[in-house]
Give the backbone structure.
Amino acid sequence: MVRGFKISRKKLGSAFKRYRRWISGLVLAVATVPTTTWAIVDVQDEYYTAPDAEVLSAWSLDFSGATGNDARQTFSLETHNLWRTEDRTLMLIGSYSRADSGGRDTADNQFLHGRYVRALAAGRGIEGYVQTQKDRFQRLDSRHVIGVGYRLEREYESKRRLLLGIGGLVERERYVDLARSETNQRANIYLTTEIPLALATAASVSFSAYLQPKFDDPGDLRSIALAKFEVKISSALSMDLTVAYDHDSNPLSGVEPQNVRYASGLTYRFQR
């Protein structure tokens, strides 16, 4: 599916030797936390990657399985795509995850997000977006979103970047085993920052937080916090570890109000 995904054994071996200390540390960190098949999607994740590129596409693929005493299968795919002109950016983000253990499904979620950003002046801009998703294990049969917002962007001399967004959205949700759909209007406030790290190799850490209270009932609040550590293996290949926390103050009966998720893997990017 990803054309041009070719890395010679010699180059990959050289990159591994050069960065093996950081790779080993990241693998050790991943080994100490539970494995999950939840999708972790930050729609702003690739926005600052290669800001001068007209086209950017990033793909992450993870699959594993076992038979015998431990019968399980997992598969996840995530993609971020950006198209830029002088004052406009179009983003398309998607993910799919599915898993089973012992013949029983343990994950089944899908996510698709499209966003249009129009730059104004001095780091300011407006945006509009649409989104659809489903997650059978959250009893979410479908969630459709349309929203607009205003955003402020800042880049500092240290290459640290900051993005603040404020807006509103309309969501329409339908849950498994419920005959009716529910429509809500929510505020949407988010903050994203990326900080380069002064390590032996190119690395960065990023943080994102999203708050979505209902306009007519601010106590009905949804929130998400994400932290990501990324190490460059080559100009196109990187390894990352992401931790995410989400909370719903008014969950559906039988659904946990909060989740902690972990994910790690390789990401391949190509641009022009």
Observations:
- Helices lie at 9-31.
- The chain has one domain: 9-271.
